């Protein structure tokens, strides 16, 4: 059997909601053993973020929301009350046997239970300890709470999303998905693997301090760099981009499509597909920089042209001309796309309560260490006995006592 890339790496996951569980899910997809630790009787807050809730085999709603299912596949799950002395001791034992610990408690909370990096590194100097918080471990905002929308507002992401002022519906707009959470999860998984590489060379673990605010700001990338070299604050362009022009949606006779023709070759092909080849040699539009300078004039011409025919006709013409374009899909119609079907982005998994359910597949494809078939996100406390018995050596009687005391 082919080994997976992170096989042999054990991750203790003390996190909840989205950013950190998304990071640990990515590590689990790549083959790491991830043990998710949740509060007894309650679990990860994300389990309650419904409706919709997963239905069991009889059609009755379970306690697990779709939100939770999205970022907890391929994990084992135990319940431990770390606020008790016995529970904190269990977490410390697990940390001593782990390569990575991921947590997203507010700064300083876990130190009260001896579960912070400084406490745990004594028993496990090679531990990679990743803390994901809203604002980081230090600074004037370090103790503030926050969620994705707050960080989209604070980092500037909302200021460049949405329609321009003066247009109907104009104003700052939150990105539809929890984008700062997702990006932070990706940064975290990347940082953890870099820290493991360092650990493997030196035997030395380290503390990773990731802030959602920092990751949100870093994700603005060229928007920020353009400002830094020009002093001009970028505005909102709705469904238009800040690169070459055109790069945005156009309303056809029946629906919208998205078209990008940013290079001179692509723009020339677009003008021919539109039946207006003269636009490619118009001095206002004959170079990338000219099209950017004369953006409004060009978009007015293109908008008028696209409105004359249905989307399907334009998409066929643009594909024949090798101009990048797409219909604007929703999360239902995207699965009608033959490329999505070919890439098998949906996987069927066997859930212990619901039976067969469909889930998104990890998009990473590795030639030598492929990602294996996914396992369903665990139900609350699914692996209590197995982890406590097999990993920590607890007897059945000891496990029963812990349960009776409410520790697990």
From TrEMBL:
It holds the Pfam family CoA_transf_3. Keywords: Transferase. One of its GO terms (molecular function) is CoA-transferase activity. Transmembrane segments: none annotated. The keyword Transferase applies. This is Crotonobetainyl-CoA:carnitine CoA-transferase CaiB-like acyl-CoA transferase. It comes from Sphingomonas yantingensis.
